[in-house]
Amino acid sequence: MNIVYSTGPVENAAGNASVSTWVKVLNLSQSQEIVVEAKVYRLNGQKSEIASSSFTVAPLSSDFDVFEIADILQYEVQIAVSDGQNALVSVWGKDADANLLCAHRFVQNELNIISNVSSSNAINRSAVNRVSNNYHKKRPRKR
Questions:
Q1: Per-residue pLDDT tens digits of the chain, which is 143 residues long
Q2: Are 60 and 72 in contact (CB under 8 A)?
Q3: From CA 26, how far away is CA 97, in angstroms rounded?
Q4: Structural domains of the chain ordered from first start
Q5: DSSP E strands: which ranges in 1-143?
Q6: CB-based contacts of 44: which residues, under 8 Å, 6+ apart?
Q7: Is there a contact between 117 and 2 (Cβ–Cβ < 8 Å)?
Q8: What is the value of pTM for the model shown?
C-alpha cells in the first residue's frame, strides 16, 4: 500500500531557522525494497514545488536525502513510500551549524497521512531518478 505523508505547513522564519531538511526512511521488510519520492514545497504565498528526489531503500536498510531550504520562510515536505506498512519515515531540520532543530523534527506519528493508495497504483519503479535543482543537496552515494 502506497502512503503519502506530509509535515503540514512548517514555519521557518525564526532566528534559528533550518537551512536544510533531511528525509529519512527505514525499510523494515526482510525481502522487499521500498521506493521513496520526496517533495519540498515553498509556501511563501502560492504553494510551489521547489525540489524533489526519488530513491530506493533496500530491505532492512535505511536511507536519506537532504534538501536546502535556506531563505524559505514556510515550507512543506511530502514523502510517498511504496510500502507504507514496512516503512518508518522521519523529517529533520538542521541549522547553519548542522544542529538538529527540535521545532523541525517530525517522527512518523507526527506526520499527516494525506493519501493512501492501493498497490495497483504503485509508484512507477522505472521512474526512480534523482531530480536535482538549486534546493536539492546532492550527497555521496553509498558504495
A1: 799 999 999 999 988 899 999 999 999 999 999 999 999 999 988 999 999 999 999 999 999 999 999 999 999 999 999 998 999 999 999 999 999 999 999 999 999 999 876 544 444 333 333 344 445 555 544 44
A2: no
A3: 25
A4: 2-118 (2.60.290)
A5: 2-6, 10-11, 20-27, 34-42, 48-57, 62-68, 74-81, 87-94, 100-106, 112-117, 136-137
A6: 72, 73, 74
A7: yes
A8: 0.81
